[in-house]
């Protein structure tokens, strides 16, 4: 005697899974692109902040203090101007709502910056259209090591003329 196994028709069952799998792949790809854009914006801000800090540590030295007593002292007003010019020269337009703050103590300057980076695909979803990134850098106009206790801590917001 022969036993018959009932045949089931499985044709077309994968057809439902293909659009769902494609949608998941598209969402993962969009998340990867937006994460890469955010990381790139953070690195660009960190590079601009480090460059501005180094520029201010060298170009904003107070002449009166140096020629009067031989001390290396960074002029906060000149440092703010140098930081604004340096960041404006390095910015490529991807960073929006840029805010800067500086802290100066003798020959040491710290620059803190934050900016908004727009997402590529996240703009389609409410609340995911932008990401805030921040960076901070320290530079000293001296060849000796600066102790941690002499690091400037009081940040003053910088208002750039073209921002």
Question: Would you kindly provide a written description of the structure presented here, covering whatever features stand out?
Answer:
Strand 1 (95-105) and strand 2 form a beta hairpin. The protein has helices at 14-59, 63-69, 76-90, and strands spanning 95-105, 108-118, 130-140, 156-158. Helix 1 (14-59) packs antiparallel against helix 3. The protein has one domain (15-158). The radius of gyration is 27 Å and the shape is rod-shaped. With 163 residues, the protein is α+β, with helices and mostly antiparallel strands. The longest helix is centred in the first third of the chain and has 46 residues, at 14-59.
Short summary of the structure?
The chain has 163 residues and is of the alpha+beta class. It is built from 3 helices and 4 strands.
């Amino acid at each position: 005697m022969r036993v018959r196994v009932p045949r089931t028709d499985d044709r077309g069952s994968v057809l439902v899974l293909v659009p769902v799998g494609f949608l998941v792949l598209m969402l993962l790809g969009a998340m990867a692109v937006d994460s890469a854009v955010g990381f790139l914006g953070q690195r660009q801000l960190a590079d601009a902040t480090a460059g501005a800090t180094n520029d201010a540590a060298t170009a904003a030295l107070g002449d009166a203090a140096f020629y009067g007593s031989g001390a290396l002292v960074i002029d906060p007003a000149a440092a703010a101007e140098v930081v604004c010019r340096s960041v404006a020269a390095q910015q490529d337009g991807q960073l929006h709502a840029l805010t800067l703050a500086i802290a100066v103590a003798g020959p040491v300057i710290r620059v803190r910056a934050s900016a908004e980076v727009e997402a590529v695909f996240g703009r389609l979803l409410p609340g995911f259209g932008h990401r805030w990134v921040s960076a901070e850098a320290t530079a000293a106009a001296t060849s000796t090591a600066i102790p941690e206790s002499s690091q400037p801590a009081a940040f003053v917001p910088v208002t750039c003329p073209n921002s």
